[in-house]
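Note to self: the last two entries modelled the partners one at a time, which told us nothing about the interface. This time every component goes in together.
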Amino acid sequence: MNKLFIAEDIMQEHEVKGYFEILRESVIRSRFTMTAVFFKLANSSQGTDIERHQVNHQISAFLKSKIRKTDLLFQLADGMHWGVFFLQSSEVEVKAFLTRIFAILKQEREFQQIPLKASITEIRNNSVNFEALLEKNKQKLADDEQPSWSIEQVTDYNVQPTELVKVSIIEQNAIFRKVLETTISHLDIPHFTLEVASYEDGYSFLKSDSYKSGHMHLVIMNDILPRKNGLEILHILREMPNEKKFIIYMMSERNSEGASLNAYEGGVDEFIVKPFNLRVLEAKIRRTFARFWL
Amino acid sequence: MIGLSVSFLLKVIVVLLVILFLFTVYLLFQRRREIRFAETRDTFLQNYSLPWYNYLINDENFSIVLVPRGKAQVAAVEIIFSSYLKNILDEKVEQKIKEFSNLYLKEFYEKDLSSRRWSIRMNALYRIADFKIDELLNACQQFEKSKISEEENFQLLKIYSLFQPELFIEKIKELTVHYSESEYRRLFVLLEDDIFIRLFEDFDSWTKNIQFAAIDTAAVKRNMQYIDQLKQLLTHEVPEIQIRALKGLYEIGVIDEIDPYVPFVTSDMWEVRLMVAKIFKHVPLNYSYTYLEQLLEDENWWVRSQAAKTIAENKEGIAKLQQFMESSNDQYAIEMAQESVVRKQGNK
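The predicted structure of the combined assembly is written out below.
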């Protein structure tokens, strides 16, 4: 059996498992992508024990100096792998990070004896468990013939779950209400399902109670509405404890700075002056949802 | 005592009853007609709103079923078109509505123009403008020759401004009716830039309301093209025109040179001085400060207040005001500066 070379100043596999489980759930709850990277020496079987011990220390120190404060570095129990969880980072950012540190390792004289290889796993759902993640990455890096600086990829966890979003359209004009309803129902937004409902006035929207559920909720409403008007609804929604779940678009016939300023200060996310182009509205909605995941 | 025979009274009662009966029948008939009209219109709306959406928005092929038959269905199409035009900005949609209206609604509105009822004629004029039925331009010119009301004439001007701006300019030159400023503004705002700018060519030939409306519309349009026109009016002999031109330039918000505005700092009219204090908001403070300091010591409260506000809005404004407070002897001006500083710091 190989003698283990454990660096003492970084976290160990058993300590990280608990953190990982919390982080994995945050991926869903806060919609932030996490990417795990595992490193291994490209020629791990070479060298004496003392040399390997030194190299391991060098690798730990080097990685520790390069990661951000929000990233979590640890060493695996076998002493041959290192892992880093990059929080709020997508695969693209992590690849750029790897290219950068590999370039440093290749250039700097003192690091020349440590040719690394890495495997990347982008995590966008919570169906992954710690042991499986480790196992899959170890397998990816198991081949001793792999060249130095190669980057492998595990793609099993990079699809985020589809999230239900409620959409409420509050518009008095029946024809236009139907136009908006049809347009938005046909909108295909990756990883989000839109459940569209429409209301002719503010009161019937409030009566529906649909806004009380915990789902993300896109409200597209006119500023002037019968019974309860748009600004009142805006106020009610923004006063709610979980008001952040509402994305509020306000439509208005008033093309004045005063009206739009008032609306933005009241808490709308978009102020749209009528008449407007439906394709632009669609694009705005797409961009709004594209911001939720890295 | 009046002597009336029973048989005579009975006859009168019978005649009245017959009239009442006929009137009731007429009312019931009218009501039924109205209900049937509304039903046909609503059924059309229900059945054809989606096909119309597919044709207008999704570029699906035109189908003959979309063509309305009878007045009730025309009313339904009117509702659909008006809803789209009021809420959606899309050249393709506008073009399709225009083509369809020129082809299938033209005859309805042409007939409506000769209606005896004013409301029907007005509705036709509104729709001709909204749906851009330019093939009815000749019919409209014919219609103008008949005895028409001021409102109808106004709608006709709107139609001319859309379809034949040259004719519009001619028509307003020879107008006998005088419309209000706001009515002219409503007309001018629809004009294309190259036509609108012609209003400034022979400016003094227009009536006051047209002159004022032209200046105000230039301000609303916020087009840099009109800056030169408005600047020329700064030397106009009528103070009201000067003030409005200043206001327009302030609204457009681009001040390329300070010299034309400097004489207004010492104007006799406080309204002019107020406008100039506003305009300096769009000028770097190192160019305007000397004049603003002068305006800060103005005799009029509004001017002082605006000058202080303009200075305070600048990044270095607060420091300048504090410096001013230390050096000035004018108690009123110092108080105003102080107020602006406090307000500005309170907002942070």
